[in-house]
Amino acid sequence: MTIRAATEADFPELRTIYLESRRAYFHWADRDAMTIEEFDKHTVDELILLAEGENGQILGFASIYVPENFIHLLFVHPGFTGKGIGSQLLDASVAELNEPIRLKCVSANRQAMTFYENKGWKRLVEESENGETYWIMQYGT
Which residue range or ranges hold the N-acetyltransferase domain (predicted)? Predict the structure, then answer.
């Protein structure tokens, strides 16, 4: 597996992964309201790192907003979860940023919360926005 910066040519596959992953795992959200176009809206001005398999298939991605040392999105293709891809994407994202690094994790996403906490992230404060509750989490000092 290779971690590299995404190019515009990768966007069609990244859009699909984003939509399929959210529909598969975001049990608290309205799946029918999710659209393929949201990927572009949610990643404006962000550096997108992707995990690519040996056959060139995109296995997952992380979207980071470098000016604020913020990891915005981290998604693994539903067919490839549990293989360490998320950990490698998280490590690559951390390497691109300066500590302290922050992210938001939806409170209802218990699997993701556990993942981040096992990687050394700490919960700072729980907030609500647009009817969704999430934790601000921090890595580093």
Answer: 1-140
